[in-house]
Amino acid sequence: MPEYKAPVRDMQFVLHEVFNAESIWAKLGLDEVNRELADAILDEAAKISETLLSPLNRSGDEEGVSWNDTVVTTPKGYPEAFKELAEGGWGALAGDPEYGGQVIPKMLVLMFEEMSYGSNIALGLYLSLTSGAALAMANHASEELKQKYLPNMYAGKWAGSMCLTEAHAGTDLGMIRTKAEPQADGSYSITGNKIFITGGEHDLTENIIHLVLAKLPDAPAGSKGISLFLVPKFHVNDDGSLGERNGVSCGSVEHKMGIHASATCVLNFDDAKGYLVGEVNKGLMAMFTMMNYERLSVGVQGLGLAAASYNGALDYARERLQSRSPAGPQNADGPADPIIVHPDVRRMLLTQKAYVEAGRAFSVFVGQQLDTAKFGEGEEQVRAAGLVELLTPIAKAFLTDKGLECTVIGQQCFGGHGYVREWGMEQYVRDVRIAQIYEGTNGIQALDLMGRKVAANGGKNMAVLIQEMRDYAASATTAGMDEFTAPLKKACDSLESLTQDVLAAAKDDPHAVGAASVEYLNAAGYTIYAYMWARMAEVALQNSDDAFYSAKLHTARFYMTRLLPQLDAMAASVRAGSDVLMALPEEAF
Amino acid sequence: MPEYKAPVRDMQFVLHEVFNAESIWAKLGLDEVNRELADAILDEAAKISETLLSPLNRSGDEEGVSWNDTVVTTPKGYPEAFKELAEGGWGALAGDPEYGGQVIPKMLVLMFEEMSYGSNIALGLYLSLTSGAALAMANHASEELKQKYLPNMYAGKWAGSMCLTEAHAGTDLGMIRTKAEPQADGSYSITGNKIFITGGEHDLTENIIHLVLAKLPDAPAGSKGISLFLVPKFHVNDDGSLGERNGVSCGSVEHKMGIHASATCVLNFDDAKGYLVGEVNKGLMAMFTMMNYERLSVGVQGLGLAAASYNGALDYARERLQSRSPAGPQNADGPADPIIVHPDVRRMLLTQKAYVEAGRAFSVFVGQQLDTAKFGEGEEQVRAAGLVELLTPIAKAFLTDKGLECTVIGQQCFGGHGYVREWGMEQYVRDVRIAQIYEGTNGIQALDLMGRKVAANGGKNMAVLIQEMRDYAASATTAGMDEFTAPLKKACDSLESLTQDVLAAAKDDPHAVGAASVEYLNAAGYTIYAYMWARMAEVALQNSDDAFYSAKLHTARFYMTRLLPQLDAMAASVRAGSDVLMALPEEAF
């Protein structure tokens, strides 16, 4: 397996040079966070990713988790590594400071996430599910629950899980059957079966705090009758010590394509004691706090694995000697040239590089909106919150789709060795594949974008985004920027007219939104990446003597000329309309 | 795992209705092969695929092959199944009749291959490697070798393998180090190490006949000094009985992403006795006979697994109840609608269907050229041979790229269940992935196409293909065909002008060919699929009352409007030229 190398320099470039994060943080009143602290965090995150997480990645894949009579055992080294992560404070980064959390901006937390996923997604998941559960609790749980549970979750002494899916209810959570019966003491008795619970059971922590969707006996049908409950694996006594086992147990673990070291559990709740989080029948809304957090985080999984795969492919392309350059020998003393001399190998590497670096900038852009929505004020805060809504499904789906594409390319660079487990490149493909599926499949993300985030408000937030990109293109007057702002402007025009066309079609056609959704999301993704590359190119143009910046400029050019044309294909596909999908009778498929 | 259902009706449609195969066979003098025989073969192939091969597919994946001190054991049931396949005569289909082969046209053999790969690629590989080795021998080996080995290979009593790759020499076979020392008895002593040898060792047959590339002591450097040798695992006595073990043994097997039941071996040759096949130093040419056969066959692996995945996804989409149609409940009595009501699920299914059915027609089109090149005469034969050269890399790469795309889509239709091994959809993804890599990576196929098959002859064979497609479009005057011939004509224009642009750029730019190659191959693939869909649409228009034909028409429309626009994106990418790939210094990546 390629050794994980954290792309710290590239992260600093995005954070400090492209986004000028320090000034954003100052403006948001996050005075304790500055460039120095950010760099220290990046360095420390790089160290644990490279030395603690990465060495366990392939062994964890080979060994996997094992299940025996409700007990789940993680691979060798995982409990110790998780403990070290927890003690390093990595579970508290974005937590509520009242309960032991740190106030680290999301823009920076995302980079830790990229590194932890890129070096060992399976292990990283246990931590990020815990952070996500803590986030939902911080926003919706009672003071009593927060005091009792949050400090140990932030400290990584206890882990968290989110329990939504049932065998017959995945996308359609309105169909869940898990029941919550009110008890005399104000708690609830939870009974039902959940599947696909990441980190639902394991041996990493002494307790696991499950957030569970269930229905009260008198709840309305469908998604408006769902409530959220906190169900600890072990009861917690008033003095904070652990009590007896609660009525929740692991019935089995799934055998999966990848993320073998992550326990994907069947959880059986049998008269388990649970505590209401948020309001009755408003559980889905409370859970969405967690899901939005997780969705961006899942996008970053696509980014992290793509970056790791690029890193491996690049090293291999520099070392593997095979055939000669079409321009004549470049390594005349060797038996053959390194394969990086071949145009098509460069095309593969540049495709990875262009998607990875734009993806990193994009995730930080979303992080900026999240931070502004959380710490900002007034109109700026409202605007950022609107952008978060709009951008979350794009980040989840586009980053993970590109994650698969990039890890497949990285594997391809290795030829036959890419297919052999020992080399590690195929694991990236298997591991990243889940990110397109869980937390709402990418098709569901596209529906969320096109339906709830665009059509439902007449494209208001999309108009804000397009305006920002146009304003940028108009204001970027550094010499040489035309090459990058011209395609960006054209992309904005395409995306705008595509948005209008779909909105118009949706007036009379109930299928217009669903028929357009996936390609529309892609069109938005390609446009946003053009925006990111234009911004990176501008910084590079101001520093073009240096090889690092010159590489940014070349990659921006590659993106605009060789990848952005996909936007037109997506737009053409959307404009084909819904009839071509709906006219075929179901039985004729 | 979805039960494999052989798409016999669709195969008959392509063979009899679209290509009118019976008339082609009659014209080629293959009088014994008619529609009745073809249908009987399809039915029998469907039966063994569904009842013999498919039931072993998932168990074979879970169990895998095992290696212990040179002995390779295949999964439970594999030796018996292979024996039954062999005894059914499936190894002799396209063999030389002088040695026990049958004269079944490639157009038909391909359909058996699609079924065997679609139901169990790992098991199918043992047979097709044997057929490929037999083909190379039938074309290049001495009469003595043919008489001694071919009958038992056709009968599946002995298997075959092709031994090319060495650890340091994959794409660049000129670098191989395996040595062949001439012996007094006219044989050669072969010494060296080969890797990635599919079926290099196993327990399916009593003997294995290896075709091995090696170099004579005085051979010229590079690819012009390679000779081909036949090296049996067990010596064969003059009476046909097996003698002692030869000096070849299996050093280990690879642990791979997929095709777990296929033994991918390290083979060590240590003073093994080998026999020259073909002429000294012309081994690569002889091996190409086998490789071209294998390359089309590998393309069909992409097709077969895509078709199997479509079949599974379609069943699931009809059964899985989740959410309601945007047009209101379609299954009002049930708790939710089947997911096939959703536009985006239909988009996924139609994408699979459009690629699979065009791919099947395309493979038969290539089969037609192979049959004409083999059995035809005069100009027609020469023209077909030229088209085979041109189409082989497209078939290998485009069919397998679409194979990955389609199996990923099929997995996606299953949501979380798609990621779980038990459901079988992820195995298709893992299994098909190798087909983009082996027998020359798809990048190498694209270079072969753009360099050797297009640029090297000024685009002559490509012009023949484009002319055929244009002639067809001009002659297809059935009412309603404009909808399909108009985009086909436009695609032909695009492909032609793209070809001319690349040829022009290649005059001064050594990197032009490599920079254009992959997208160019894709552009050709999309155009050819438009041709296939136009031909299928024409048959459908003449039978449009029936649901079967109406589905063809709908799918053709879907292809032209929603998938063919990719062609423009590919063309734009090619026209970006090579500078954008080559200008970045290697150290700046």
UniProtKB/TrEMBL annotation, chains A, B:
- Purpose: Involved in the assimilation of dimethylsulphoniopropionate (DMSP), an important compound in the fixation of carbon in marine phytoplankton, by mediating the conversion of 3-(methylthio)propanoyl-CoA (MMPA-CoA) to 3-(methylthio)acryloyl-CoA (MTA-CoA).
Domain Acyl-CoA dehydrogenase/oxidase C-terminal residues, every copy: 281-449
Residue span(s) of domain Acyl-CoA dehydrogenase/oxidase N-terminal: 78-157
Cite the Gene3D superfamilies for this sequence.
Acyl-CoA dehydrogenase/oxidase, N-terminal domain, Butyryl-CoA Dehydrogenase, subunit A, domain 2, Butyryl-CoA Dehydrogenase, subunit A, domain 3
EC numbers: 1.3.99.41
**Which cofactors does the annotated protein need, by name?**
FAD
Name used for this protein in its record: 3-methylmercaptopropionyl-CoA dehydrogenase
Q: Which residues form the Acyl-CoA oxidase/dehydrogenase middle domain?
A: 161-271
- Domain Acetyl-CoA dehydrogenase-like C-terminal, chain residue ranges per copy: 465-585
GO-annotated molecular function:
flavin adenine dinucleotide binding; oxidoreductase activity, acting on the CH-CH group of donors
Similarity comment = Belongs to the acyl-CoA dehydrogenase family.
